[in-house]
Give the backbone structure.
Amino acid sequence: MSEVKKQERDYTPEVDALLPDAIALADSGKVPEAIDTLLALEKQTRNASDVKSTTRLATTIMDIAHKAQDWDLVVSSLSLLAKKHGQLKATIQAIVEQAVSWLDEIKEKAGLEAWFNTAEGVRTVSEGRIFLERERARVTLMLAHYHEKKAETEGLPSLETASEMLSEMQVETYSSMERKEKTQFILEQMRLLMRVAEAKDEQAGTDGKGEGGGEAEWVKVRISGRKVNEAFLTEKENEELKLKYYELMIKYGLHTEAYLDVAKYWYKVWETPSIKSDEGENGKGWLALVHIACFVIVAPHNNEQSDMLNRLFVDPALKKLESLYLLVKCFTTKELSRWPGVESLYGAMLEKTDVFTRETPGGRKRYEDLHTRVIEHNIRVIARYYTRMTLARLTSLLDLSVEKTEETLSRLVVAGTVYARIDRPAGIIDFKAKRGVEDVMNEWSTDMQKLLGLVEKSWMGMNAAMAAQARV
């Protein structure tokens, strides 16, 4: 394809005269002769940079092949015309659009093999041509779905082929595609990557973090997820895309056990007007709120988790879920919550949810994590109110063994959540950090400044009183 040149001559009269004869010749069964006749004139119009005439001739050649239902000829004509020296950009775009518009018809009349060959022909022609990036992306999506369906019989290799075809398309950089179509494409990339990752994990018998699993695909899912503009999803007309996106991100968050992120994703789902309005029991809004509460309490404690937990606790919507409201209250109140009591009050209710169900490995794991969060909450409360405590007493308050108590306490100390030092021979835990010389001096300096400020304020008050008496 050469640079755009100025049109040297207008071949419209010659084209007008030739087209009816060529079409009549093709209708009489002489398709190759008709195409050869048109190609001869096409060369002249192309060399003269007559865009309109070249495009008319090229599309007529494609129409003749299509009318003859010779699908191999359609593909070969498309390839031949696109490879012509100095072929015009508008002409290539026109014949590619023609071929794309016939794909459904080809699948219906000639079967999958002819459809596949035509689609691959379009992909070959459009490769490396920026002005055809949209058409290439759309055909690639069709082919990816074709390979995905083949995976039902051929297994993982076909699924990987489908995922790789989509992943190589960097649609976020395409200026010719609308943002909505780009988002749909990226979501399909994420969905297929997840399918490949899950299949690889199942095949390797891992959780995606060991050799032979789908770790690489899970990483790509996260990268693809960052390409989606979440602000764009908040628009009302994009609600379906928003729900699909957060459904995929929730699945990713569960895989990585990022429970706080999962709670945030569920919160975004719950904010959707159509979801939030469905408040009835087992309604979509009710289920979303249940998931938010469950995942935020099972998430590891940090400032962000604490902030979300407290904001959820004061939300009037949570009060409608009495049991969950009381459970969240246990984590927001600076009081001990003994695990046996928590389990007896809320265990049966929690096990009915898909978050803590005992029927899945993930549910059982999260139920154990909930137990850990209750213990960690109790340790933070104890560290807040006690400076020292015996290990035996702490073990009894946490309803744990000595080894488990030390393990949990050590983990919180390493994370910087609490300060503690264990004197094993004496069996005593010190929760108060020893202050250094600088800390003591800084505190003394602060106290002295406060004292001097009070002295100055009192002196000024006394002087004002004495001045008032002297005037009297």
Q: What stands out?
A: The chain has a mean pLDDT of 89. Residues 134-255 form one domain. Strands lie at 388-390, 421-423, 428-430.
